[in-house]
Model the fold of this input.
Amino acid sequence: MAEEIIVASVEAETPAEAPAKPNERKFNNRQGSKPSRGKREGRQEKVSDGIDKKMVNVNRISKTVKGGRKMRFNAIVVAGDRNGRVGVGMGKATEVTLAIEKASVDAKRHMVNVDIFGTTIPHEVVGQFETTKVLLMPATEGTGVIAGGKVRDVVELAGIKDITAKLYGSNNPVNSVKATFDGLMKLRSAEKIAALRGKSVEEIR
Done:
């Protein structure tokens, strides 16, 4: 009888294992189950292509069909690297953001090289589109861009820093941009003119 009492007292004195706290259980389950937050494998960072874009104009157009009117948006965007390359694009869509995105892609796709002489243009030129005419004249260094409206956007994105421009006829934004772009396309450097004439640059100057 005495031995049974001693065994019972020993078992009572042995501490039972304390149950794990709810917070500790959650913490233990989280460890090792999820990867640590770091750089994800295969993640690509966006790299700038060095091309700036400016939205010139957005028009709302409607088309009358059998069921009623269909509303769409027409956007025109100018894109350039400010280093002798510029392009103009147009896009149509049912939403403004989608139309601008399409115009931006179209402008980047149709970028062309512009002949620049230093910080200005090599010679005077006239660009025309429908009833709009743009006179582009070279200017000395430090003059800046003396042009108004949308002409300024085109020449600045082309990388021209010193120029004087005069707009004649309609000042419609779309016509102004296309007339300016037409004038820039007509520019020819002294090397190109000399090659066409079969002479050296010193002979034509």
Observations:
- Confidence is low (pLDDT under 50) at residues 1-16, 26-31, 38-47.
- Residues 124 and 170 are 21 Å apart (CA to CA).
